[in-house]
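G., before I forget:
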Amino acid sequence: MPALEVHEVDKRFGAVHAVKRASLAFERGRIHAVVGENGAGKSTLLRIAAGLLVPDEGETRVDGRKLAPHTPAEALSRGVAMVQQHFALVDVLTALENVVLGREPRGKWGGLDLGAARAKAEAVAREIGASIAWDARVATLGIGERQRVEIARALYRDARVVILDEPTAVLTPGEASSLYATLRRLADAGRAVVVVTHKLDEVRDFADVATVMRRGAIVETRDVTRSGDEVRSLARAIMGNESVAPLERGSRTIGGGEPVLVLRDVRMGRAVRGVSLEVRAGEIVGIAGVEGNGQREIVRAIAQLDAIDSGSISPAADVIAIVHEDRHQEGLVLDAPIRDNVLLGELARFARYGLLDADAMDREARARSARAQGPDDVTIVARTLSGGNQQKLVVARAIARVEEGHARVLLVAHPTRGVDLAASRAIHAEILAAAGRGAAVVVVSADLHELRALSDRIVVLARGRVSAQLPPDATDDVIGQAMLAGHDLSPREEARP
Amino acid sequence: MTLAATDAKGVRPGIPPGLLASLAGLAAAWIAFDLLVWSYGESPRALLSMLFAGTWGTPYGAAQVLYKATPLLFTGVAIDLALRAGLFNIGAEGQLAVAGLAVGAVGASLPTGIPGVVAIPLLIATGGLAGAAWAAPPALLRARLGVHEVISTIMMNRIGEAFVAFALASGLAMKGTVRTGDLPPGAHVPRLDSVASGLRGSAASFAVILAVACAFALPWGFARVRVLREIALVGMNRVACAAEHMPVARRLAQAMLFSGAIAGLSTTATVLGYKGHFESGLGAGAGFGGIAVAMLGRGSALGLVASALLFGTLEQGGLAINAHVPMEAMQVLEGVIIVAVALADARVRESLARAVPRSLGRKARGA
């Protein structure tokens, strides 16, 4: 009997059919990878498995019994724990306090008995082969260490199934392999380990079983071989038989003369420690790096949304069009119609004596929606569109500002995250076209393929500094090395006994 | 309404959740009414018909309902406007008190022969400006320091109450009284009974027209006036608005100022339409009653008008059944409706949830 099972689950979010009648079982003693593109439904499926989301149809079974009520508390009490992509730790508490939070052992007088807690927590740490600084505040811990605290917390609650959502997204390769060593020990001790990831080489190197999801459905589940062909074959399964037109880079002339976007020795707290960058008209510069190395801060600095400590940025914000990384929070007013979203922040242009010209707004909005292959009815509320279509609107808004001459710089952060392939292609074509028309373009992305396809030059950020400027055909290894520059590779974070 | 809900196509069909909340509030009130009346040993059905007879049963009663509903409609519209920006203006009570004082004081100082076409617009503007002025400190605190408006507007209510008493006591009132001098005859907003003699004796005035106009102008404004439209967008997602360099803090402050101004306009019904002077406590209660009106009306002009009429009916009806059940029973009903609808309203829950941590001092992001 599998330790955890989802049976015929189906889930919709508005117009998005996130999971389509999927059934999947997770066995004890194995590391089970679930792979697929962004938006394929991996996280949704596993959040259902962990009781965090209630499916529209179907059920979760733990040890063969239906999970009822379908709540995270019930799942946890039955031994299913999920480590989320964004850790749920309380920064100001110590590692030990975080681990016992909600399950505090009581002393004789009802007080907190941290001694007993410590003994159990240390046993857990021994089991996963990690030593954790129990009395350090979580705020002072590194990312890898926080993740171990999260795992220790799951085990402290006697989890027999541990689900991890994109656990290596924020880790360096060294930290990642140390994480997998930990996971292997958990599996060897008879637990079921489930890992959501889109890094296929990790799957090949560390997983026992892999399930491929595409557009909400399970394509196949297979035993993983450590052969070199495994990655390619998984990639084929993930992409399916969609024929993807190769991206036409076209020929652009990168403008001579003065650069358009200039950053000089920009510093912001600990996140950005002296970044200089020049981008010319018609040039696309890609920014690569492990997440959390200053990319987000740089984008907000260029957008002039956050103040910088020192250095300089030109030009002014009003000639910079931006696609922010979080389209739901920063990109769109989800409850407003398409019309207001594609014109967000530009109402001044449509106002005379404070009154808006509704016809002109509609005309402009329809044109922008059309270029995003969006609906002609711009009164439709943005929330009801699929993620890909939402993102296309955000991109169309930025591109339109470049085209209409309001902006000379285009700054796009993770433009195709969570967007399906066809929409990604459309977005990439738009970005290339904007550069073709002479915009200075900066693309921030965690996806090296995307950066290679778009960029004339790849700038690697590591620990808030530019660690390398590379041609787009640099190999993964070279770029990977640059991403790690300045990182502490000593055994502290790597692989403690 | 204009920006989102009425435009919503392809969203879930069925009863809109807002309407459902309003209905829940009414149902809860009905039950509370029955229980209250029953606990006094009276028959709920008999009292209900008595309540009806005392309000909509006669032309005079109906006009009195209109009179009671008018200030409530002004404050309801005011609070609704603030809610659209994501702000909870609890301060209408203080805003209308200070506005009443200002209108009374300015009005009493006007020359006796002043014509209505000059005096009435001047005094309406005075009420609006005074209401906005009393909303200004919370607006600025919110925009500059992120101080939550629920806290600051409640404080301003108490300060307003004390300020009005202080100002009346230190020279603005006629000697030995707590009222301002009389307004010149030209400054009176005409009573409805001046055109319909059946309403004789009722305090209802043409101020009700202005209130209804405000209610219907608001949706239009949110669609067509740039500042109001941006206020509504800020209310829906201020992070995205800030990311596109919309002046979020300024829009929030403006929303609070506009809200205060409209609350101040309720003096048109009380000072200009009814008393002809300002006195301590005139119009009090409409500021809190307006919260219920806004909750129940839920951003639609018709909804606001209907719920103002409902609460006006309750207030007037309380007088009608006073012999059998204390009229305070009606305030209990009002309270029940506010609580029931507020609990069902996500906007209010969010606003209250943000209130405590934010006012503890950390500056809000993007606000």
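The interface with chain B takes residues 15, 303-305, 317-318, 322, 324, 329-337, 340, 344-348, 350-351, 354-356, 358, 377, 379-381, 384 of chain A (CB under 8 Å). The two ends of chain A are 34 Å apart (CA to CA).

More on Monday.
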